[in-house]
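pipeline: protein-struct stage 2 | run 1193 | S41 family peptidase
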Amino acid sequence: MRLHISYFIGMALIAEATCSAAHGNQAKDWAAVLRNDAQAFHDLVQENHPGPANTLDPGFSARNDRGLARARNRASKVHDYAGYYWAMREYAASFDDGHVAYVPAQSAPAIPSRWAGIMTGYDGRGRQVIRVSADAARVPLGAELISCDGITAEKLALRNLAPFRGRWFLAADRLSAAPMLLVDSGNPFISQPSRCRFSMNGRPIDTSLEWRAISSKELADYRKTAAASSTDQEIGVRELTDGTQWYAFPTFYGDANKATEAALSSLISDMNRDRAALAAAPRIVFDLRGNGGGSGIWAQRIAAAIWGQDVVDALPPESVGVDWRVSPANIAILEGDLGRIPTSADTLDRRGRLEQRIASMKKALASGQKLLREANDRQPIKAVAPPRRSKPVYVLTDAACASACLDAVDLWKRLGAVQVGQETNADTLYMELRDDALPSGLATVYMPMKVWRGRPRGSNVPAIPKYRFKGDMRDTAALQAWTATLPSK
């Protein structure tokens, strides 16, 4: 299993505050470092990403060229690591793809951060409100940010955050980035505000911003609070007072040597043993809060436990297949994957499919092909499927849901589940990551190697809940009380 990008994005989001200072910010020609790394990033994308060969995405190469040009133009203002870092972040963000990322090395220089003593976050109505305040008497919690230096809160975020985060059209990305609006992490391409207006119960509050240092730990902790991030929870099940079966699946990561895999496997085994109890439950809730992805096999196994393997097998294929980008470097990645699969009776089928893919890729490379179609030839089983559940299955999502979590939501909704809670994150049709260290050694870049064909949910389209929860997504008790009010049929 290749890791999904949500893991690396989580690392990158606060990298400006948490990079180690092992190498220091010693004197370098940072403009030259930027130009070299940006060119390498550009070329890696052109050579290995499916986009440049994708006729259904004709503007891809032009976007890549514009990103490089922008980074090179930024070089004249780059005099330190922070300038280099933000220029590269902007380049990666310009793809508007959560599966394209620039992630600093652990040895990269640290970027000290400052804050104004307040942090904003989006509320359920899309307003930026104070979620953290070092001086609540001066700027109270819950006050709405109206403007700074005469610029509306919305336009300030568009100017200072959107170009360096990407995908600003997604509520999930705005939610994640909002706490950094009044944080200074050394970005030389933006200006920080000096005076802001807030509103509390209709009363305007004007205040000058007092910038001061903030540690990486404080920044991470405050940011989690301000973004109303998902509560920490463990894989497991609880029965609510009304008999609702509440399953927590905060992750789909795991392998044979990890506790996560053991916990997921054990819970699914219990689901298979307790079919009578599940059938009698007035509702089932799959709590996916905080789930950033992992392996799609877990969603398949959970679906089989709830609806039955025959029902799952009766579904038509979710897509017509994928197109792999043909390149020597991508073939080398697949050969490396093959070398990590143990040779045993249990892995024969998996190894055989991968060996066939590698052989087909080499043949395509020799013939000059840029893309290799791998068709989805699975046929639905024609047997009549048993009736679906008469009682509801609710899928509770938040903005963290990405990659394999999105695959789970797509699958379960096809089987009749109802999505509730919050809009998810989204992904493009590009997937299956490769990683490459940049020439400077300061960062690794991640990018996809294949593209979906015929996926029903479009590119960068989130999954939208039928019933929206407008409260705090960390409040499990409130969520459980709310789901009890939803239809039971």
